[in-house]
Amino acid sequence: MHKKILLINGPNMNMLGIRQPEIYGRDSLAAIEELTRRRAAELGYECECFQSNYEGAVVEAIHRAYGAADGIVMNPAAFTHYSYAVADAVSAVGLPVVEVHMSDIHSREDFRSKSVILPYCIGQVAGHGKDSYRLGVEMLAAYLEGKENV
Ligand code: CA2
What we know:
Largest sheet: 5 strands, parallel
Strand content: 15-25%
Shape: globular
CATH superfamily: Dehydroquinase, class II
Radius of gyration: 14 Å
Strand order of the largest sheet: 2-1-3-4-5
Mean pLDDT: 96
Structural class: alpha/beta
Number of strands: 5
CATH class: Alpha Beta
Low-confidence stretches: none
Number of helices: 6
Helix content: 40-55%
Order of helices and strands: EHHEHEHHEEH
CATH topology: Rossmann fold
Number of domains: 1
Distance between the termini: 19 Å
Bound molecules: ligand CA2
């Protein structure tokens, strides 16, 4: 199989660059997807990008990755904090997943610091703006390369 990762963005991430630039910056989702694709390519991975505002669509994207991708970088957005369905999907497929957030979810409202998905992920990157995605891809690639060399 060609080396492949999936980038998933959850609800409202299609609004990036349009509203709240003081929190999420001025880059559009398309620009962030392009940066992520480029870094993934440098590391030898094709990167498919997906965004949805619907919980079931995110669950199904995770299911589709099973057998088709080596791992997932995901900003589950608000689903992070309450979606046991997304958490169960990550657990079910057993793929390595890195959870990424543009903002520092640990220094904002209390409800944001809790991730119900993180227990099923290999790691979390938060608070680095668009760089969180680059760091997430690097974390995933390092994990996958480590597995190859065992
Ligand atoms: O910091 C992150 O990346 C978040 O995952 C963003 C989520 C938020 O619910 C998480 O707590 C942290 C979604 C926020 C997206 O909302 C936007 C609003 C306006 C413009 C762009 C995005």
